[in-house]
Design a protein that fits this description.
By secondary structure, the protein is an alpha+beta fold. It has one domain (7-124). The chain is 30% helix and 18% strand.
Amino acid sequence: MATPIPAKYIAPIGRYGKGNIDLNDRPQVKNSDGSISTVYSMTFTNRDGSAVLVPGVRKGLDRQMTPNEALAHYKKSGEYLGKFKSEATANAYAEALHKSEEAKLNAKANQDGAAITVKNVIKPK
């Protein structure tokens, strides 16, 4: 199996803000189905069509945030995963980021002799 390209090296057309979150130090939230979320994210679109991808999990919270909580956390902390010219490019990056993190966590789990499932859901707007 090919090694996935880390999301930090994926520069989709339309991205203008790299993000300011350390992807190597993400909290893990256990979901009710047994999967784990680390880069669960939400896209919020501005009136001009630009979009910001914000985390849906944060340190100190053992569950995924609601869209209102995620937006409030972004406004308070300034943490984001990327800024984009459109919602479509934000969602494309979110999917690439998810696949990269899933592969990284699964590789670590296989190394540790465990099996895990990583889950990510993109919630536009």
